[in-house]
Design a protein that fits this description.
This protein is mainly alpha-helical. It has four helices and no strands. The protein has one domain. Helix 1 runs antiparallel to helix 2.
């Protein structure tokens, strides 16, 4: 075994196992997050007016911001449907919220 102060086999193994645990955690969290987004879409679809949906769009904004951070800052790959959501909802100014409200409530936009 090489005796090098900058490369420790046990430390390297531990770091790789930690990285694997993080990847497993993401694999668990992405489906749960997808369920939450689908639920929020369902709640928006139940809203009779755009104003009723505002709180749900706030949740979508929070989720989109977190996913965008993973995607753009940390270059973490997202499942295709979360990637599409992140890109589509990149700008949730009120005019775009109203646009997506109409698309979601009419069934044209599905998650």
């Amino acid at each position: 075994m090489i005796n090098d102060p900058f490369i420790d086999i046990n430390e390297l193994d531990s770091e790789l196992k930690d990285m694997q645990k993080i990847a497993e955690t993401l694999d668990t969290h992405f489906p749960l997050l997808s369920q939450k987004i689908a639920y929020i879409f369902a709640k928006i679809k139940e809203c009779k007016t755009f104003k009723e949906s505002q709180n749900y769009f706030e949740f979508l904004e929070i989720i989109k911001t977190g996913l965008a951070c993973l995607l753009y800052k940390y270059n973490i790959g997202l499942p295709d449907h979360l990637l599409r959501f992140t890109r589509d909802f990149d700008n949730l100014e009120p005019i775009y919220q109203e646009y997506y409200f109409k698309k979601i409530t009419s069934g044209e936009y599905k998650f």
